[in-house]
Specification:
Length: 687
């Protein structure tokens, strides 16, 4: 017989298993246990025997024990094996060996010892959830929380716990907060697109795609697995084909397991299609766009002379539900037909059209044929609200030259008048007015012809000074014209010319009028022949004049006052100089003017009251424009001798004679018994 004993002890001292033989084939088994009581199963094998037994320990949680006996065993060696108890941990071997030698109980050694398993209570705050690790052998444990994609750990995710025999350790507490999400809603108006949203913190992004022209579609996506109690920012990236309506950034947060929503709205951008009808020419046309803080420009180029071409371009990527203005810039070569400004708007994803029309401006080409001369020709344009002038210059004597110019930049479909102003030196051949019109980009021609009128050139030469001279031209058809020439130059030689223009072919005579300050040198008429259109004929011979000169006469009068006459030979002219005073010497001056170049004699007439002192004539040579001052005369006033005769006591005649001179005077008078004084004079005596 075998007896198995099972003991339990809290201090984990090894149990004793005893076998006591109580007779042949008997044995005892003892089982000790610590940490709590339990039921244990044992199996005995050996010598062809197999048997089982159980031990239920009794005692405290500190130590308990029990025994079991296998009886009736033949002699032999036996092995007892302890079955596993999930609530206990073996302390030592789980088998023992006993040798049955005869009657009596044989202990099976070593005795079995078990320690009750302990537990670690894991507290998990998922709003109050707990759990335990049970049946733990005494020892030090680490409890580690495995990440849960649906939660965010709040605090440490590992815990170190010491477990004694049968002990419950409650020191491992974990907290997780359920992850939340941010739902992104995207309203797409009027178009199809892809929209990217980024999340911070986190750095993740989602893309929502969809929408259709002419409709409004709501797209939805989520940022999931987000830690709660955090401030998140969802930002929408700009989409080239759309305009955000409202904020493009959403800042939000939520509690554990919560869900926040960020809503965004985009309107599909639209466009404005610009059509440009170009009539009659090629050009570049610039359009500017304004509205809603948007600006831009568009240039359309094309067209062809004589045709109508439609050009098309677009302002794209424009925000909808906004008023836009498209303005066409002026093109110098075109005239707008209709408005140059278009105001329009459109719904999300919409397209508006602005149409413009321009007609190419035309021109009027002016051709001018000039026959026989050189000149400047002025043309004026009127009509179609336009005005302008054009001057063409050129030509040459005796040849025909064609000049060309244009009035450009003229609006089409108008009636224009081009008028020529005929210059003085030409005669129009044909009309001087041209009326015309043209379509877009057109170019009509107005032709004019002028013949240069002939001319006669008169040349005037002077010596001795400059002057102004008058000339008269006569010729075929009763033509009479006049001109003046003011010569320029020095007193030695001067010259000038005058031209008689507008003369028909023929022979002309030019006559010079007299100039009181000049003397003609040669003929005072000339003849000129105008051969044809533009012919310039010199009038020959040339005219020459000498400026008249003068003789200045100086007269020195000594001792008296008188008038003195001087005559000039060859002219019949004379001058009289008057002046002087008794007891003084005075110089008088006079001139013979307007004298042709020549040799002259100036002669002084006798003055009975004066005696000449020096010659009474002077020879003076006068050149052209010369002043001769060489003629000087001197006269002395004659004196007198006064004779006084005192006659005493009688009457008588008394004769007095003067020498030199041979003259005499007689004084008569007196009376008896008185004294009388008689007076007489010898006068006109040279001093």
């Amino acid at each position: 017989m075998y007896r198995c004993r099972h003991r339990r002890r809290l201090d984990a001292v090894p149990s004793r298993v005893r076998e006591r033989r109580k007779g042949l084939g008997g044995g005892d088994q003892e089982h000790d246990r610590t940490g709590g009581n339990g039921v244990f199963t044992f199996t005995l094998t050996g010598t062809g025997v197999s048997a089982t037994a159980t031990i239920t320990t009794t005692g405290t949680t500190v130590a308990g024990s029990g025994t079991a006996t296998f009886a009736g065993l033949p002699q032999g060696t036996y092995t007892v094996t302890e079955g596993t108890n999930p609530d206990f941990v073996p302390v030592g071997a789980t088998t023992c060996i006993a040798v049955a030698t005869g009657a009596g109980a044989t202990p099976c050694l070593p005795a079995f010892t078990n320690a009750a398993k302990g537990a670690i209570v894991v507290t998990k705050q998922v709003e109050g959830v707990t759990g335990s690790f049970t049946s733990l052998s005494p020892g030090t444990y680490t409890v580690t929380e495995v990440a849960n994609s649906g939660f965010t750990a709040f605090g440490s995710t590992s815990c170190t716990a010491i477990v004694g025999a049968g002990q419950i350790n409650t020191g491992c507490a974990f907290t997780d907060q359920a992850n939340g999400q941010i739902v992104v809603t995207k309203q797409v108006q009027g178009g199809n697109g892809s929209f990217v949203f980024s999340l911070t913190p986190g750095g993740s992004s989602i893309t929502l795609s969809g929408g259709a022209p002419g409709t409004t579609v709501n797209l939805t996506g989520s940022f999931t697995g987000l830690a709660p109690n955090t401030t998140y920012t969802v930002s929408e990236s700009a989409s080239a084909g759309f305009t955000a309506v409202g904020p493009t950034v959403c800042t939000t947060s939520f509690g554990p397991g919560g869900s926040a929503t960020c809503a965004f709205t985009d309107q599909a951008s639209g466009q404005i299609v610009v059509t440009k009808q170009v009539e009659g020419g090629s050009g570049s046309f610039t359009f500017s766009l304004t509205g809603n803080g948007t600006s831009g420009s568009l240039t359309l180029s094309g067209g062809s002379m004589g045709t109508t071409v439609t050009l098309t371009g677009s302002f794209t990527g424009l925000s909808p539900n906004t008023t836009y203005t498209v303005s066409e810039s002026a093109n110098a070569g075109f005239v707008p037909v209709g408005p140059t400004t278009c105001v329009t708007s459109f719904a999300p994803g919409g397209s508006a059209t602005c149409a413009f029309t321009d007609q190419a401006k035309g021109q009027i080409v002016v051709t001018k044929q000039i026959q026989g001369g050189n000149g400047s020709f002025t043309f004026t344009l009127t009509g179609g609200g336009q005005s302008g002038s054009l001057t063409l210059s050129g030509g040459a004597p005796l040849v025909t030259v064609t000049l060309t110019g244009s009035f450009t930049g003229l609006p089409a479909n108008n009636t224009y008048t081009v008028s020529e102003t005929v210059p003085a030196g030409f005669t129009a051949v044909g009309p001087t007015v041209c009326v015309t019109s043209f379509g877009p980009g057109g170019s009509p021609t107005c032709s004019f012809t002028n013949q240069a009128i002939g001319s006669v050139v008169v040349t005037k030469n002077t010596t001795g000074g400059n002057g102004t001279f008058s000339f008269t031209l006569t010729g075929p058809g009763g033509v009479t014209m006049s001109a003046t020439i003011s010569t320029t130059g020095s007193t030695v030689a001067g010259s000038g010319t005058a031209t008689f223009n507008g003369l028909a072919p023929g022979t002309y005579t030019v006559t010079e009028a007299a100039n009181s300050d000049f003397v003609p040198v040669g003929l005072t008429t000339c003849t000129a022949v105008v051969a044809g259109p533009g012919s310039m004929a010199p009038c020959l011979p040339e005219f020459s004049n000498a400026h008249k000169g003068q003789i200045v006469v100086t007269k020195q009068v000594e001792g008296g006052s008188g008038s003195f006459t001087f005559s000039l030979s060859g002219t019949g002219s004379s001058i009289t100089l008057s002046g002087g005073a008794a007891g003084t010497t005075v110089t008088l001056t006079g001139s013979f003017t307007g004298l042709a170049p020549n040799t002259y004699t100036v002669t002084e007439a006798a003055n009975n009251d004066f005696t000449p002192f020096g010659p009474m004539s002077c020879i003076a040579i006068v050149g052209a424009g010369q002043i001769n001052t060489s003629c000087a005369f001197t006269d002395q006033a004659k004196g007198q001798i006064v004779v006084t005769k005192q006659v005493e006591g009688g009457n008588g005649s008394f004769t007095f004679s003067l020498t030199p001179g041979g003259s005499s005077i007689i004084l008569s008078g007196g009376a008896a018994g008185t004294t009388v004084t008689l007076t007489g004079s010898f006068t006109g005596l040279a001093p």
